[in-house]
Amino acid sequence: xxxxxQLQVLNVKKSILEIPSKELVSGIIEYSLLxxxxxxxxxxxxxxxxxxxLATALLLWLIKIFCFGExxxxxxxxxxxxxxxxxxxxxxxxFGVERLISIKAFKSDIAKQLILYAIVINETKTIKQIKxxxxxxxxxxxxxxxxxxxxxxxxxxxxxxxxxxxxxxxKGTIISNFAELSIFYYPVSVLSILVEKxxxxxxxxxxxxxxxxxxxxxxxxxxxLINVVFVSILFPLVLKRYRTVLGFVLGFLALLYFVDxxxxxxxxxxxxxxxxxxxxxxxxxxxxxxxxxxxxxxKMWKERPFLGYGYGWKKxxxxxxxxxxxxxxxxxHNLVLSLLFESGVFxxxxxxxxxxxxxTSLFNNYKMAVSDDHRMVLMGVMILLASTTISSLTMSxxxxxxxxLMMVMIGLGLAKLKGPxxxxxxxxxxxx
Length: 432
Fold this sequence. Notes:
By secondary structure, the protein is mostly helical. The protein is built from 20 helices and no strands.
């Protein structure tokens, strides 16, 4: 009797909203997310498209929950710790300074990260969906590189200043900082070429990777270079793709020779040789320029140690000026110091616990996975987390497009897929 009543209620919900099928709603949600993911590198040109696509995905996901009762289908400890971190962030806003700036930052970053994570982790059911997300990411960064090159040629009319264009952009250009974007997109591109079996797509992704390394080389960013070396060697080694390691190393050396031949005045070979010297990091301008900001960030945190000054880095300069600190960078340029400044020791602790639980969940899923493609995806997300941790020493890559896409990748890694993808089919494989 009770089941019949529930079925009648479900039919009423469907008829009221006139939704033809769950599959159609799921399809629209998936394509809306893909559009949103595709537009992430184009931050200054696609704000309306992003807003519409994410709102569409969220609205239809909520309608799907209301109509078909599909909610909470993938509970795991990572989600619990993410909620705890979010709660701490809200407290930091309530008890912090410049609350309006904090609320705007929360809306543009954490709120969207939560939406993406919740939808992706519950809507991802197959390896095919995961591959679709990876291909869209690779295609978007490839289009960005082509658009950047075209825009530069159109505006400047020559190739001679290409280095200056990539390294230090002007207002209005389509790309803001490729080296920072590459910290996310390069590992994803390497993962895409490893999971793909079709030769045509592998060649296409390989060309994209080649141009990404070229752009990174021209940017002169040591952090981005370290990320390239780390991912290019560790990923294939873990998966026992030794020929792939050799291919990446030889390809990078050839590209470095090419860049050095066409830009001898930059002396890239000597500069990148310094990456493997400890004295580089003790004497580097990149470090010395950050030291005053790091010291000031630490001193300011000690004044508000528990919940910080409230979420959002855009208030950093104003707080520094109010405290009497001048000529500092616009943000702490270190993830630990950023978390301490924004949400104090409670925010740092809850965020670290979230990352640790995510990593252990991914590792446990990796041990249980039987599909080679699924294992590669899980390993790819773990390596992406590790490489992001390295880059976090000199920047804060968890805001803006990077943070949102990281949540997408974490959601893909923790999603409960259909079919025999685990050795022991438990109800909630995302739980370690």
